[in-house]
Fold Phosphatidate cytidylyltransferase.
Amino acid sequence: MKKRILKLSFLALMLTTLTGCELAGDIFEAGMGVGIFIVIVVIVLIIWLISKFRK
């Protein structure tokens, strides 16, 4: 249970500190390949989190 709270608090911290426009600007600054990789990782992470909470 403590690991879940730690993960959720880390996710909440990231969501509050990184705004959407700032994140998009950083992705374009880093390059298209890195941006695509980050988007894929975020999508996989969201799917993984949803599957964990449904069990």
Observations:
- The radius of gyration is 13 Å.
- The chain has a mean pLDDT of 78.
